[in-house]
Amino acid sequence: MNEMPDDLILQVSNLRKAFPVRRGLLRREVGTIRAVDDVSFSIHRGTTFGLVGESGCGKTTTSRMIVRAIDPTAGGIYFRRPSGQVVDLATLSGRALKAVRGEIQLVFQDPYSSLNPRMPVSELIAEPLRAHGWKRRDRDRRVEELMQLVGLDPRFAQRFPHAFSGGQRQRIGIARALALQPSLVVADEPVSALDVSVQAQILNLLKRLREEVGLTLLFVAHDLSVIRQLCDEVAVMYKGRIVEWAEKEALFEHPRHPYTHALLKAVPAPDPHAAWLDEMDEHTSTAANDVAEATGAADAEHIGCPFAPRCPHATTRCREQQPPLTLQQANASQPHYAACHHADTIMHNTAVTQ
Ligand SMILES: Nc1ncnc2c1ncn2[C@@H]1O[C@H](COP(=O)(O)OP(=O)(O)O)[C@@H](O)[C@H]1O
Ligand SMILES: [Mg+2]
Asked: What is the domain range of residue 80?
């Protein structure tokens, strides 16, 4: 896959993950959940790419496949290594995979449970360094440097995680992720578990790191307001699929997909899927759909647009044909993709300008 453009660091191509659904005493497999269903997007070096969507849409599954914490069912994850070599993470294994591991790092959602409570901060941050054979003295120096970089006082290096606040713990998680100077950091809802005031501090830290160490970030969130503060490009996920992908301003000012529009309308509210989606959910709860999928009705469900049951614009075509993610406005300076049969009309009727 050498045709990957030079300015891209990651290209995710038709990525899928299906989880078996098991029921009963014998744990028989009664169906599958398509947690990630044909997802494609790419990330430019030095930028922050936002992946947003409601809980259960497949964000964590996508993130975990990219860092190869879990194996994809199908698809490609093309990654440009610092050497310039492009590898498909989806198919790497053994030593080749290990060599790449330090180059892509994950920041976890929950700073409370993701750090081993029995390890002092110095060891937590040094763990990836040790795994890559760094010597004690070099590790100590690097830990001090990293603590300073993320705004932690190096004098606290021997303290344990419980002595730190949620925001400070997330700084430890970020320092640890940066230890090996990864070319890509995947941050899976890194601020969702934090208070709003602390969220802002962590977002500012990530912005600063982007300037100072040229961080390339895949930033996952369920909240568009957080995405807006940080990201250059945004992909919106719904039920395992990307429904819209564009440069941030274009997405916020001219959303093309009704789901993006719904999320945007909910932005000022503290709960990102507030009233609008609740109304839609009265008749078609997401949980009910999931069960239908899991019990074999999946194929019927996937014939049409996954959003059709909740969409105010849905027509017969939407219920019968799944819209592919297609380039809108080919003449625009930045590409804008949407998976909606009615993307053009919807833009005129419901564009949001905030
Ligand atoms: N290990 C697993 N086994 C079975 N189902 C899973 C597993 N992990 C996630 N899922 C399911 O996959 C879907 C996507 O989950 P996830 O990627 O965690 O979504 P998000 O991070 O967007 O909330 C959900 O329906 C979830 O229940
Ligand atoms: Mg998640």
From this structure: 8-103+180-254
